[in-house]
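From the shared-data thread, chain only:
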Amino acid sequence: MPLSSEHAGHPSNAVGVARDHITIARADTLKFSELAGFLARHMGKQVSGRDPNASYPGLGFVAKADGELIGIALFYFIPSTEPGEDLCYLTIFVDPLCRRCGVGRRLMDEVLDFAKQRDGKVAVVVNLPEADAEAGALLLSRCGFAEIDSELRYERNLVGVQPRAPDPSFSLHEYRGGDPLLDRGILDLHRRAYRSHPCVAKITDDLLALRLANPDCNYELMFTAGKLVGYASLWREKGGCYIDSLLIAQRYWGSGASDNLVILLEGMAIKRGFTTAWAMCRSSNRPIIRLMDSHGFRSVQTTRRFCKRFCDAGA
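Structure, as C-alpha cells:
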C-alpha cells in the first residue's frame, strides 16, 4: 500500500496527472531493472540477482503515466490452513505524487478481478504498517476489505548477551530433512498451532522441502526424552535472525518447553554470530507476547492486516 518516501531529485512530473493518461498492464511486461529501480526509489530496497533486461516473472499489474512507472501491485497465491482456500498475498506501491489520481484503486480492481477467476475460495490479504495505514486503510475499506488483526514486530539485541543455560532435559537439533516422520511432525505441529488463526499459509510437503533446502532457512527441532516437543523456523537476514515460527505441542504447554526453546534459540543465534533476533506476533496471541516480553524482546512496530474473501471464486 502507499508508502512515504523522499522525492528530492525524483524525475517524476506526475503531479495531477490526468487519469486518461494512466495505463494498466501486467507486471510481466516490466523489465526487472524497472521494478528494482521503483522499489529502490520508494522503499530503499535493493533488489539484485536477476538479468536487468529480463521481464518480471511473477504475478502483478503496473500503472504507468506517459511511459513512466507510477504504481505496482505484486501478488502470489499459496494454500491456506483453511481447507479449500487459497491466500493471495498482495503488496501495492503507488508513487506518492499520484495517490489522488485513482492509481491504487485501478490496480486493486485488476487484482481482485484476477483473484475472482480462480477456482475455490480465495482470501486476498494486505499488510499495512501502522505508520502508513491511514490512506491505505481507506482504500481497502472502499474495496470491501475487513481488518482481521494486527501483527507486532518484536526485536532483541543480542550484542553482549551471555548465553543462558537451558533445562538439560530439552535439546535443540538443526534439521535439514530426510526423515519422513519428522516431516510429518513438523506439518502436524503447524496445522494444529494455526488452525484457529485467519489467513495463515499452509505448510505443504513441497514448501517444507524448499525451505529445508534453502541455506538461509533453518528448522530447529526441540526434543525431550526422544520426543519432538516443538520447533522454530528461522531465516538469516542482514546479520540477524528472523524467527518465522515458534511452536510447542499443546500437551507440553506449561512444562517450560516454550521458555527453553527461546533460551536454546538465543544461545544458537549468539554462537552463530547473529546480532539481533526478531519475530512477528499476532496481537491476539497473548501467550506468545508474554513469552517475548519475558525474554527481553521489545515491540517496535505494528502491522495491520486486512482481508477480502471470495467464497466461490471462479463462479
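The radius of gyration is 22 Å.
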